[in-house]
Amino acid sequence: MLSKVEFRLKLATVLLVFSGYVALITTFDYGQTILNVPLIAILLMPVGEWLDRRFKFYRRVTSVATVAFVIADVAAFEYLRPLEVVVALIMFIQVYSLLHLKRVQNYVHLFLMSFFLILAAAVMSPRPEIAVVFVLFLFAMTWGMTLLEMFAAGSAAATRDAPPPQWRSLSGQIVHAGRIRLFDTRLSLLIASTMAGVLAVAAVLFVAGPRTEAGVLGSSRPPDAAVVGVSSEVLLSGGGVLQSTATPVMRVQFPREPGGQYLRPMFWRVTSLDAYTGGGWQHRGLLTPGYDAGELSRFKTDSRRSSREGIERPDGDWPETYYEIYLDHPMESAVPLLQLVKRVTPGRENLSAQFRWDYANDFSVVVKTRNTNGLYLQAWSEILEPTPEQLQLAPMDFASVMVPEDMKQLTEQDLLPETLDLVRRLTEDQPTAVSKILELMRYLNGPQFEYTRTIPALPEEHPVDAFLLRERKGHCQFFASALALMTRSLGLPARVVSGYRGGAWDPGDRSYTVTEDMAHLWAEVYFPTIGWVTFDPSPVDREPDLSTLSQLSRTYGRYLLKARMLWLRNVVSYEQHRQGASLRSFAGRIFGFSGDSWEALQSTERRRAFGSVAGAATVLFLGGLTVIALLWIAFRARTGRPSRGGGALSPDQKRAVRLRARIVRKLRRLGLRSAGRTAEEIAEAAACVVLSDPEVVPAALAVYNSVRFGRRPFETAELSAWARRIDRLKRDAIRAG
Questions:
Q1: Is the CB of residue 291 less than 8 Å from the CB of residue 402?
Q2: Residue 582: pLDDT band by 50, 70, 90 thresholds?
Q3: What is the b/e burial string over 150-169, where b = at least 16 CB atoms within 10 angstroms of the residue's CB?
Q4: Which end of the chain is more exposed for a tag (fewer CB within 10 A), N or C?
Q5: Where are the alpha helices (DSSP H) in 267-413?
């Protein structure tokens, strides 16, 4: 009969083990292949238990393997992070326990190691999915601990040849160990209520407790890493198929725009690539501190400036827009912002984030933060959208605003004579610089060129010439590179810019979602007195992925991004003022007053009765503990007390049980341990000592047996009489022999 309990206990153990490994998958340090470890160990578990039962040699071999692994794991400290070494040790302990016979302590080891894996995942910057894993772990742990108690009681009964244990269900019925169903309704309700109590206490501890982003419980990733640009280098040679995913990068809101919609083109600028290498582009930077001799303060940046309050530059002459960004992975992607950044400040969730201008003097923004779960920020940008007339009036005197080295770098190109002749023929009838650039864009957007995700196999030397003269198809990198180099051949400073273009509008929360497949490359041309002006020559993508799977992926990614935002705002960066607000709101609902009247109530009797916010946390915490304690007492009273009879106890039988308990307590005070023994065993133990009234114990136990199992009447007065005799018992001596 006990085998059914053990079978269900193993099921719960398997669920617990898997939950620990799934928690590791929610981090950026472990992939799905880690699931092979528990899967193989669980499949080999019957074989390992059989070998452990039959052969001592198996235990010796595994003991040697344990020593060897511990030595190797300690040596790995030189090559791995300490947390990785600890995780490896935890995994080995679990595998070892799975491949051997299991007693109570072995199951405890497996449960504890699963908890340690959950804890390890929690400090490695997990994704929000770990919340689901935690609920699964909590259910499996509650289920497993309940079955483990039944397994332990059954094992103890089998050891002393006692009758199989029985448990009383919530309805008062006697439940035999062999008749427990896999998903018993009453047991499920008990587990669910226990989980609710534990979650309530965890929520209170979370609301009232402090947060940390570093230290022992901080992220395992480097805390001060800073990355500039989606890519600091672009290679144009080679070929293949352009792979794109709808993974969200960031979420943007324009709260000051009508309806929250931004109607201008959105170019999320990350970094400029200003140096052409002959086969691609690099981010090198410029020496010129300002590009406009008359307005140096407007275009000058200070790359050494760093502030926790953000960065800003003097005002310009262009219209300004305000927007709020949640960036999903700031450590892997820099800060994408609209063109001419004026000011950037961290959100309340990222008060420790520091911003500074990039060294390249191009208004790229570098972020340094300890939080790898996401980044909230507010930004202000000037929208640089000059008209063709304004560009035509701009002077072309670059020598007055640029040092010669920068001018040489920004006009360097290696186009073949055939390409230069093409540029001359296209622009010879255009009188101004801007008209020449627009004519080149019209040519690249003509019917002879095709936007495709199938990248042509271009040579390492002169790839742009091969694109313009022979292939005439490709993606944004080729079109932007072609326009930049052709513009350079006209003597105009030009470069390409890496970032994202556009955003998917979500009318539900009035936000835009920028995804990875919106990564883009475009060109910028410099006009004195105006600045760097955006030109995007890429034609419309004629191969959009409009499949149902793609749409579902985008929808899923959008909601997942929202979940990560909630995780960052309400978990990782949960602030003290929001803790107090949450506690005040919850306490107000309990005590019947609103949050608006909280300050007025500080001097009332309620404040004296309730205390401060810390008092509210204490009350809620103690209340949660009380709920768990009551549930545990109910569980022990209903399901954990052994019983020999069937059905509910009568009042006489309950009094008999109280009599037996009184005897056990008295004998324990006299130095005799008799808990868990039968009435006959208690009488035998009492016979080993000389008592002041040697007949009272066997006589009282005889009464207990006749009432408990013979159902004879047993009134309260008789119980009181026996209780007085038992209380007067004294120990005279230990019986000789």
A1: yes
A2: low
A3: bbbbbeebeeeebeebbbbb
A4: C
A5: 296-299, 388-393, 404-410
Give the pLDDT mean for 101-110. Answer: 87
Q: 168 — phi, psi (to 5°)?
A: -95, 125
Range with the largest mean pLDDT of 49-63, 127-141, 220-234, 586-600: 49-63
Which is nearest to 379 in space by CA: 327, 343, 329?
343
Q: Express each pLDDT in 86-97 by its tens digit.
A: 889 999 999 999
Structure tokens given for 102: 């299991």
Q: Which residue has the higher pLDDT, 654 or 601?
A: 654
Query: d(Cα 246, Cα 514) in Å, to the nearest integer?
Result: 9
| CA–CA distances in Å: residue 454 to residues 451, 473, 474, 548, 717 | 9, 9, 7, 22, 95
CB atoms within 10 A of CB 148: 19
Q: Name the one residue in this structure whose structure tokens are 């007025």.
A: 600
pLDDT tens per residue across span 403-431 = 889 899 999 999 999 999 999 999 999 99
Phi, psi at residue 344, to the nearest 5°?
A: -140, 130
State pTM to two decimals. Answer: 0.52
Closest CA to 441 of 384, 480, 414: 480
The identity of residue 361, as a single letter, is: N
- Interior CA angle at 444 toward 440 and 449, to 5°? 160
Cα(444)–Cα(432) distance, integer angstroms = 19
List the structure tokens of 303.
């790359």
pLDDT in tens, 187-243: 666 666 766 776 676 665 555 544 433 333 333 444 333 333 366 778 887 666 665
263 vs 571 pLDDT, higher one: 263
Bridge partners, 734 (sequence order) = 689
